[in-house]
Protein backbone atom coordinates (compact mmCIF):
# COMPACT_ATOMS: atom_id res chain seq x y z
CA UNK A 1 0.00 0.00 0.00
CA UNK A 2 1.26 3.43 -0.91
CA UNK A 3 2.24 5.90 1.81
CA UNK A 4 0.87 8.71 -0.37
CA UNK A 5 -2.44 9.93 -1.68
CA UNK A 6 -2.84 12.27 -4.63
CA UNK A 7 -5.48 14.95 -5.19
CA UNK A 8 -5.85 16.70 -8.54
CA UNK A 9 -5.85 20.48 -8.23
CA UNK A 10 -6.03 21.61 -11.86
CA UNK A 11 -5.21 20.90 -15.49
CA UNK A 12 -4.18 24.15 -17.16
CA UNK A 13 -1.96 25.17 -20.10
CA UNK A 14 -0.99 21.58 -20.85
CA UNK A 15 0.13 20.79 -17.29
CA UNK A 16 -1.70 18.47 -14.91
CA UNK A 17 -1.19 19.44 -11.25
CA UNK A 18 -1.97 17.68 -8.02
CA UNK A 19 -0.98 17.60 -4.36
CA UNK A 20 0.67 14.53 -2.87
CA UNK A 21 -0.19 13.91 0.77
CA UNK A 22 2.11 11.73 2.88
CA UNK A 23 0.75 9.48 5.63
CA UNK A 24 3.82 10.40 7.70
CA UNK A 25 6.74 12.74 7.16
CA UNK A 26 9.78 11.43 5.41
CA UNK A 27 11.60 11.37 2.13
CA UNK A 28 10.03 12.87 -0.98
CA UNK A 29 7.96 10.43 -3.01
CA UNK A 30 9.40 8.56 -5.97
CA UNK A 31 6.76 9.27 -8.60
CA UNK A 32 6.72 7.86 -12.11
CA UNK A 33 4.33 9.04 -14.83
CA UNK A 34 3.86 6.93 -17.93
CA UNK A 35 2.05 7.21 -21.25
CA UNK A 36 1.81 3.98 -23.27
CA UNK A 37 4.29 2.36 -20.84
CA UNK A 38 6.88 5.06 -21.61
CA UNK A 39 8.05 7.58 -18.97
CA UNK A 40 6.83 11.16 -19.30
CA UNK A 41 9.68 13.70 -19.17
CA UNK A 42 9.95 16.81 -17.01
CA UNK A 43 7.66 15.64 -14.19
CA UNK A 44 8.38 17.68 -11.05
CA UNK A 45 7.70 17.04 -7.38
CA UNK A 46 8.16 20.16 -5.24
CA UNK A 47 7.88 20.37 -1.45
CA UNK A 48 5.07 22.55 -0.11
CA UNK A 49 5.63 24.16 3.28
CA UNK A 50 2.97 26.80 3.95
CA UNK A 51 2.58 27.86 7.57
CA UNK A 52 -0.57 25.71 7.92
CA UNK A 53 1.10 22.49 6.77
CA UNK A 54 3.85 20.46 8.35
CA UNK A 55 7.00 20.29 6.22
CA UNK A 56 7.59 17.02 4.42
CA UNK A 57 3.92 16.06 4.30
CA UNK A 58 2.75 17.76 1.08
CA UNK A 59 4.30 17.99 -2.38
CA UNK A 60 3.14 19.67 -5.58
CA UNK A 61 3.22 17.29 -8.56
CA UNK A 62 3.36 18.84 -12.04
CA UNK A 63 2.97 16.64 -15.14
CA UNK A 64 3.50 18.41 -18.47
CA UNK A 65 1.58 16.85 -21.35
CA UNK A 66 4.06 16.13 -24.15
CA UNK A 67 3.11 17.31 -27.65
CA UNK A 68 3.15 13.74 -28.98
CA UNK A 69 0.26 12.91 -26.62
CA UNK A 70 -2.05 15.38 -28.34
CA UNK A 71 -3.87 13.75 -31.21
CA UNK A 72 -6.76 11.54 -32.25
CA UNK A 73 -7.86 8.91 -29.78
CA UNK A 74 -7.55 8.38 -26.07
CA UNK A 75 -4.26 9.00 -24.25
CA UNK A 76 -4.12 7.77 -20.64
CA UNK A 77 -1.42 8.87 -18.22
CA UNK A 78 -0.66 6.75 -15.14
CA UNK A 79 0.83 8.34 -12.02
CA UNK A 80 2.56 5.65 -9.96
CA UNK A 81 4.21 5.52 -6.55
CA UNK A 82 7.38 3.75 -7.71
CA UNK A 83 8.30 2.51 -4.22
CA UNK A 84 4.95 0.78 -3.66
CA UNK A 85 4.31 0.01 -7.37
CA UNK A 86 0.80 1.40 -6.91
CA UNK A 87 -1.20 3.66 -9.21
CA UNK A 88 -2.07 6.86 -7.35
CA UNK A 89 -4.05 8.55 -10.11
CA UNK A 90 -4.62 8.61 -13.84
CA UNK A 91 -5.93 11.11 -16.32
CA UNK A 92 -6.94 10.87 -19.96
CA UNK A 93 -6.99 13.11 -23.00
CA UNK A 94 -9.63 12.37 -25.63
CA UNK A 95 -9.55 14.12 -28.98
CA UNK A 96 -10.45 13.80 -32.62
CA UNK A 97 -12.84 11.25 -34.04
CA UNK A 98 -13.01 9.18 -30.87
CA UNK A 99 -14.40 12.17 -29.00
CA UNK A 100 -16.79 13.12 -31.79
CA UNK A 101 -18.36 9.68 -31.93
CA UNK A 102 -18.83 9.58 -28.16
CA UNK A 103 -20.43 13.02 -28.01
CA UNK A 104 -22.72 12.38 -30.96
CA UNK A 105 -23.87 9.07 -29.50
CA UNK A 106 -24.49 10.68 -26.12
CA UNK A 107 -26.47 13.57 -27.67
CA UNK A 108 -28.57 11.10 -29.69
CA UNK A 109 -29.33 9.14 -26.52
CA UNK A 110 -30.28 12.33 -24.64
CA UNK A 111 -32.57 13.42 -27.52
CA UNK A 112 -34.33 10.06 -27.53
CA UNK A 113 -34.85 10.19 -23.77
CA UNK A 114 -36.11 13.78 -23.96
CA UNK A 115 -38.60 12.86 -26.69
CA UNK A 116 -39.84 9.96 -24.58
CA UNK A 117 -40.30 12.25 -21.56
CA UNK A 118 -42.13 14.87 -23.66
CA UNK A 119 -44.57 12.25 -24.96
CA UNK A 120 -45.17 10.88 -21.45
CA UNK A 121 -45.70 14.39 -20.05
CA UNK A 122 -48.15 15.34 -22.80
CA UNK A 123 -50.06 12.07 -22.29
CA UNK A 124 -50.18 12.75 -18.54
CA UNK A 125 -51.51 16.30 -19.15
CA UNK A 126 -54.26 14.99 -21.46
CA UNK A 127 -55.31 12.29 -19.01
CA UNK A 128 -55.50 14.60 -15.98
CA UNK A 129 -57.35 17.51 -17.60
TrEMBL record:
Record-given protein name: Uncharacterized protein
Source species of the chain: Sagittula salina
